[in-house]
Amino acid sequence: MSYILSLDQGTSSSKAIIFDENFVQIAVQQEEFQQIYPEQGWVEHNPADLVLSMMNCIDRVLEQAKLSFRDITSIGITNQRETIVAWDSNTGKSLCNAIVWQDRRTTERCKELMKYKDVIHEKTGLFPDPYFSATKMEWMLKNCYEVERAAEKGTLRFGTVDSWLIWNLTKEKVFVTDYSNASRTMLFNINEKKWDKDLLELFGIDELFLPDVVDSSKLIASSIYGPVISGIAGDQQASLFGQTAFNRGDSKCTYGTGSFLLMNTGDKPYFSENRLLTTIGWKIDKEIVYALEGSIFNTGALITWLKDGLNLINNASETEKLAREAGDNGGVYFSGALTGLGAPYWDPSARGLFVGMTRGTKKNHLVRAVLESIAYSTKDLIDLFVEDTKIDLKKLLVDGGVTKNNFLMDFQANLLGVSVDRSLIKETTALGAAMLAGLAVGVWTKKDLEGRRLSEIEFKPNGKDLSGSFEKWKEATKRSLDWKM
After folding, report:
1. CB burial class (10 A; 0-12, 13-18, 19+) of residue 34?
2. Which residues are registered as beta bridge partners of 195?
3. CA–CA separation, 17 vs 102, rounded Å?
4. Which residues of the chain have pLDDT under 50?
5. What is the Cα Rg of the chain in Å?
6. CB–CB of 411/328 below 8 Å?
7. Strand ranges (DSSP E) for 269-314?
8. Crossing angle of helices 47-65 and 161-169, rounded to 10°
């Protein structure tokens, strides 16, 4: 029996999962780490926390599975994307806190970059936004003394979290990333498949500071534990792969801290006319798959906010019961722009908004409005996917912690008018990384993986017309734009 160790380094926790060759999850360990908020709109992680929490999970998951490293065939890595770590190649120590993908400190810089938006989009498939990595690196170079000094010495290394983990988990201190992660930096030319010299010059970043770009499934290097690292993908691309969305038009949505909707668009980049993102799904040998992507910055984060920020609920599971008890939303609509809006609005100044409240509005209505907003945001993106690609959505494959909410999944199916298919394997992101790792060492072939996805339940639409409610939500969202000056 072959066992694959999948390392899933997320926004709020590190997770290690062992899968066997039949995709059975043998063991899982998870450890949360500190979220750092130095100023309003800033989000940071201590890079040492990312590594140490992952190492702790690795030790515990082997113990839980009653396996040794000799039993592990290979290691796959998947990670929160766009988050940037800076470290010194001589010392191996980080030079400042990592700037997380949610961070909005470079909002003003991104407004300045809008004059280059067409060029940036044509080269990278992205739009100027604090979400992406380039302005984070630029900010570090201008505002962190240790980063500036390392750049002068030529020892500076910038990496997304996959690069940072691989550097720390390989004996040779290998400095690489894969195509899926590179395509999220706003520095990588997805047409020419290399770091773009014009963009490097625009942001003042030397290519020396950036990792080599390798295939998503490839023998990379031996880990400090022994087994080879042989799979890398950003979390959303790993989820697309784990959902076996191998055919053009296959679409998935991961409902996690945020929501990420991806559609496989085949072997050529498809540039949206509706401000959706074009990204690299994965590259394996001669095969390259592109995807169209829409990002919703706050999904699970909204439910956490209901609990920790507003104290409306004690735990996430309460939201389903409260929403069903409400019967309807009581005329209340919610724009979830707590940290700005991604596609198709790309407005970092948008802010959250409840509208339609009366003296009769109750807690249930507010909770239901928040859940409905998650489904409306997804519908908003899918309509644009269909408009751009002319490919009708036949089914939406879903995963992520928020999909446990059956009310939300029912509402989503009714709103879309197609089945919403929840995966039996919840950890599809980690599974995708494991699949990529196993492919590289011959545990599976691509053909072995086709048709292996297991469905837990399909939520089917009931035919109810929700178009009027959707239009009201869109109006609420428009009113939340350009709020924070």
Report:
1. exposed
2. 188
3. 25
4. none
5. 21
6. no
7. 277-284, 287-296
8. 60
Q: Is 407 left (phi over 0), alpha (psi -120 to 50) or beta?
A: alpha
| Residue 381: CB atoms within 10 Å | 25
What local confidence, expressed as pLDDT, does residue 348 receive?
79
Amino acid in the structure at residue 222: S
Full-model pTM? 0.86
Question: At 32, is the secondary structure helix, strand, or coil?
Answer: strand
Residue 357: half-sphere exposure toward Cβ, Cα within 13 Å? 14
Domain extents for the chain? 3-236
What's the N-to-C CA distance of the chain in angstroms? 58
Q: Hey, what CATH class is 3-236 in?
A: alpha beta
Name the residue with tokens 């702790």. Answer: 56
Tokens of 92: 């191996």
Instruction: Tell me which long-range contacts 451-455 makes (C-beta under 8 A, separation of at least 24).
Output: 451/244, 452/23, 452/244, 453/243, 453/244, 453/397, 453/423, 454/23, 454/423, 454/424, 454/425, 455/421, 455/422, 455/423, 455/424
Locate 106 and state its tokens. Answer: 């470079």
Q: Residue 88: beta bridge partners?
A: 156
Render pLDDT for 390-433 as a digit per residue (tens, 0 to 9): 888 989 999 888 999 999 999 999 999 999 999 888 888 999 99
C-alpha to C-alpha distance for 280 and 125, rounded to whole angstroms: 9
How many Cα atoms sit within 13 Å of 56 on the Cβ side? 13
* Tokens standing for residue 253: 């949505």
